[in-house]
Amino acid sequence: MSEDDEILNMNEWYTAPQAIERLEANIVKKLDSAYPRLLARAGLVEAKILSERVRLYRKHDIDGYVVEERGTKAGRAQRQKAVESRRTKKQQGGLDGKTNKGGRQKKQPPDSGSAFVLAL
User: Which of 10, 50, 74, 96 could form an SS bridge with 54, CB 3.0 to 4.6 Å?
Assistant: First the structure.
């Protein structure tokens, strides 16, 4: 056994078919066989490459990953971000009637006492 060899506890890893089966357990549709590899490439799950055609995926990462319909996570994240933004503005006093719905300052009419008039 060389220095580069490493002993893997196979109870902690899924093969690609096992990973797909586990990911499909929570959803209705079928996943592509490349899905675990794409998750690993995105850094969402840890993978070990044993050879050109064999990869293992960490069970802990696969078990914790939930597959949702396309756009669901993004939509939920946008709604959550908007709620947090409104909450932060309220706490900072930004929503006191001086801003419009977009968060921009409302244009205030010029104060007649502070404006000067240039007469020709």
Answer: 50
Q: Does residue 112 sit within a domain?
A: no
Strand partners, 56: 15, 48
DSSP H or E run through 48 = strand 47-49
Decide if 5 is inside a domain.
no
Q: Which tokens hold the place of 1? A: 């056994």
In a domain, 97, yes or no: no
Tell me if the pTM is above 0.85. no
Instruction: Give residue for tokens 């009637």.
Output: 97
C-beta neighbour count of 92 within 10 angstroms = 9
Domain that holds residue 82: 10-90
pLDDT at 73: 66
